[in-house]
Amino acid sequence: MNSQEIAELLRNMSEKEKNYSEELNNLSEKFRHPVLQALIRGIAKDSEKHSIFYAALAKLVGEIQPMITEEELEIIREGLEKHIETETEMIEFTRRLAGETSDPRQKLILLAIYEDEVKHHKILLDIHRNIAEKEAFTEEQLWDSVWKDSPWHGAPGG
Q1: Selection from 144, 141, 132 nearest residue 68 by Cα
Q2: Could you count the other beta carbons within 10 Å of the beta carbon of residue 75?
Q3: Consecutive 10-residue runs of the chain (158 residues): their mean pLDDT?
Q4: CA distance linking residue 34 with residue 63, whole number of Å
Q5: Helices within 33-69 (DSSP H only)
Q6: Contact partners, residue 53, CB within 8 Å, separation at least 6
Q7: What angle do CA 60, 63, 64 make, to 5 degrees?
């Protein structure tokens, strides 16, 4: 399968997840039980997220990706560090509350939140390690490639 075919499959999956999310939201509006509504709407949000992920993958496969500038890298790095700390707090909070409650309905929702927070934390750490620290094409790298790495050291034809 070539990259255009893969991109098309990913776009189709994005649309399918988006439609599924809408169907689940419509279902949750047909009854009043708050815990069941929350669980169904939570799954709908995950499908909405999956739609976004598939669309991003389609762009990754089908388009040239822009380089991250040094300024963007700093914004990403600072934002991620703040959110990594926040996720850590949320993990501890939900773990503690889930351990303290004896109500199985509360425990179900708290553990679902906990598992999501653990996943979010891992993803943010992975982004920080693998993208925020490695993706930037710095001005220094640009000039190195133009001057040092060129056989003509920046002059046309040597």
Answers
A1: 132
A2: 13
A3: 95 98 98 94 97 97 86 88 95 98 94 95 89 59 59 54
A4: 42
A5: 34-62
A6: 14
A7: 95
